[in-house]
Amino acid sequence: MSDSFKILNGGYSHSSPQFVKGFKNTLKSQSGQNYIDMTMGAGSLIFGHADEEIVEAIEQQAKCSAIFLQNNPVIQSLGQKVSEFLPDSLNNYIFCNTGSEATQRAVRLARAATGKMHIASFQGGWHGMNEWTLLDDGGRFGETQIKSYAGIPCSALEYSLLLPYNDESIWPTLENNADKLAAIIIEPIQGSNPQPEIKSYLTKLVSYCKSLGILVIFDEIITGFRVAKGGATEVFNLEVDIVTYGKVLGGGLPVGLVACNQSVYENTFADPTKSILTGGTFSANPLSAAAGLATLNKLNEQVYTQIADLSDYFRNSLNREFEKFDIPFMANGYKSISRIYFTNSPIQNRKQRDALELPADVQSKFRYELWKVGIIWPTNGIVCMPMTQNISTLDIVINHAVNSAKKVLTFK
Ligand SMILES: Cc1ncc(COP(=O)(O)O)c(C=O)c1O
């Protein structure tokens, strides 16, 4: 391969393995080896790789040409379908292209609605490449906090406030900053720490923010259309001001969505003194909309039950094996979202996780051991179960995960 260029995206160097085909739960490399893929397009492929109906919908739409920046019936149908999935209060939509774009737009909308400029986010949260929430990269890239600031002006960070997650000490901080805070953005279930027992904290947060005039943005880019039709907002029965979506909604193609309630709409788009930007060459494009619509047409309660049950099986089996072999790891998660913690001590938030887990190099050795036996484990540790998964494949993964754990503990 030529040395005349470099692709700087992480993991995309000339020498990294390249994949040429995906099918259901597997990925085939250029050299012809099949891998069990536990990453599933970073959680975007709820029906696995190359689902026939989704591929067919994309092909049909591609034949009509990719009509960009023009109103089209596919995006209208997707809007209709989304409104049937989401809670009734969330019926104003801005379509965009990625989760990062959605959170960036959500932040701007919150500022425009309130006239306040500060944004609070939580330790261990991840909202993509959005300047306003990159105070803490969640350690995903094994970098120090300072590195994650590179290229972001200090003035941007002055408007950001980082809060400890799942921690009662935030209430006075919110009160003291209420006159500055436009919004607080939170993943209702953090990918870095998917806590099943978070409902009461979220409920308190939402009611506290409401009383203080701080908008709440739920970042449902992982949980949206995955944990239930209406995402975590529906499952926890909470009314929030703005919600962002992505991943599953794109059916494998790039998408982002900001949904806001009527009050945010009244204070932004309906206010003639305010001009809110919604443009973008690929925003609301019919190709992504066709893939999204085909996906939503296949999503139903049976899907949610099946992927949650498979995930329960996965976590319970892993934990049973970890206990049996005295491996100090633990599998935890919520519905179809799971992760292995490299400790078996109880964890309240990401900060505790960082303090208690085995170091990052042990975790990457664990992934490498799995790689050697043909299993791709997500670098961010988040395992999102697809409908194409089955018990026999999971048993293979569980067996190898336990063996890999034993190996890294021996070498530690
Ligand atoms: C919770 C959350 N928010 C935002 C993003 C950013 O989305 P994207 O990678 O599509 O820009 C991600 C991506 O993983 C995410 O998990």
Q: Please state the second-level CATH architecture of the domain at 68-298.
A: 3-Layer(aba) Sandwich
In one word, what is the shape?
globular
Record the strand order, biggest sheet: 4-10-9-8-7-5-6
Give the number of helices: 15
Evaluate the radius of gyration: 21 Å
**pLDDT averaged over residues:** 93
The biggest beta sheet is recorded as: 7 strands, mixed
Percent in strands:
5-15%
N/C terminus separation: 36 Å
SSE succession: EEEHHHEHEHHEHEHEHEEHHHEEHHEEH
How helix-rich are the residues, as a percent range? 25-40%
CATH fold field value of the domain at 68-298? Aspartate Aminotransferase, domain 2
CATH homology group of the domain at 68-298: Type I PLP-dependent aspartate aminotransferase-like (Major domain)
Give unreliable regions as ranges: 143-147
Got a strand count?
Answer: 14
CATH class call of the domain at 68-298? Alpha Beta
What is the element layout, followed by pairings?
Layout: E1 19-23, E2 26-29, E3 34-37, H1 40-43, H2 52-63, H3 73-85, E4 92-96, H4 99-114, E5 118-122, H5 145-148, H6 154-158, E6 160-163, H7 170-177, E7 181-186, H8 199-212, E8 215-219, H9 231-235, E9 242-245, E10 256-260, H10 262-266, H11 286-298, H12 301-324, E11 330-334, E12 337-341, H13 350-356, H14 360-372, E13 375-376, E14 383-384, H15 391-411
The structure holds pyridoxal-5'-phosphate.
Write up this protein.
The strands form 3 sheets. A 7-stranded mixed beta sheet has the order 4-10-9-8-7-5-6, sandwiched between helices. About 1% of the residues have low confidence. The chain has a domain of 231 residues: Aspartate Aminotransferase, domain 2. It is of the alpha/beta class and 412 residues long. 40% of the residues lie in helices and 15% in strands. The site of pyridoxal-5'-phosphate (PLP) has 14 residues, from helix 4. Pyridoxal-5'-phosphate binds next to helix 4.
